[in-house]
TrEMBL record:
GO terms for cellular component: endoplasmic reticulum membrane. Its main location: endoplasmic reticulum. Pathway: Steroid metabolism; ergosterol biosynthesis. Residues 1-21 form the signal peptide. This is C-8 sterol isomerase. It comes from Moniliophthora roreri (strain MCA 2997) (Cocoa frosty pod rot fungus). It is found in: Endoplasmic reticulum membrane. InterPro entries: ERG2_sigma1_rcpt-like.
């Protein structure tokens, strides 16, 4: 009997330490943020103004501005704009280009010329969806009217919240996520195993994400 009590006491103690560790990590994650949501929204607006009729021109403007604003010793960006990959998550499908991926932040361009809709997912961090081209609709449970986001606007999805969203034909956005990124990855990978079986896209996503995270870790960027 005493051995059973001791075993449960040890398990309870380990579980308590684990929970306390998670709370500590959550409390200190802000110290590793480098990108700023307000700056990124202004950058999205500037890119629209600079290339109003060219999505690729907007992306080039964003990359040029990021690499000139931030030192490569501070944060690493992927400047290869040919690295696009399909992404299926929450029932929605589009393509993404990973600009930055680290342990606490990611920045991508996501969109589709065809249109899509689905579930946003529930993230342990804040998501900022800056519309570059097209239009996004969204709503929270209980809302009877849609929210509409047009070029230059940002759809901020707070931590722990979720929405249904729809991206109309030709909609592309600069998406910024902050928080502990690894726990969010299963949402982006799950559809591969349950429906699409697109393991080629999964492999490229994992390879490029791991490469970018490793590059940032090497300069001390979590």
């Amino acid at each position: 009997m005493s051995s059973t009590v001791t075993k449960w006491a040890i398990l309870f103690g380990l579980a308590s330490l684990f929970v306390q560790g998670l709370r500590w990590l959550d409390a200190v994650k802000d110290r590793w943020y480098i990108l700023d949501p307000v700056f990124l929204n202004q950058l999205a607006q500037d890119s629209i103004a600079a290339s109003p009729n060219s999505t690729s021109g907007m992306i080039d403007h964003i990359i040029a501005n990021l690499t000139s604003t931030y030192s490569p010793q501070q944060i690493q960006f992927n400047t290869d704009t040919s690295e696009w990959v399909f992404n299926n998550a929450g029932g929605a499908m589009g393509a993404m280009y990973i600009i930055h991926a680290s342990i606490t932040e990611y920045l991508i361009v996501f969109g589709t010329p065809l249109g899509t809709e689905g579930h946003s997912g529930t993230y342990p961090g804040d998501n900022y969806f800056n519309i570059l081209v097209g239009e996004q609709w969204a709503f929270y449970p209980g809302e009877l009217e849609k929210r509409v986001y047009r070029p230059g606007m940002v759809n901020h999805l707070p931590r722990g919240k979720n929405i249904q969203y729809k991206m109309h034909k030709g909609c592309f956005a600069l998406e910024y996520q902050r928080g502990w990124i690894p726990p969010m990855l299963p949402f982006g990978f799950g559809d591969t195993f349950t429906s699409t079986l697109d393991f080629g896209a999964l492999w490229r996503t994992v390879k490029w994400t791991a490469r970018e995270m490793a590059g940032n870790l090497l300069i001390g960027k979590l």
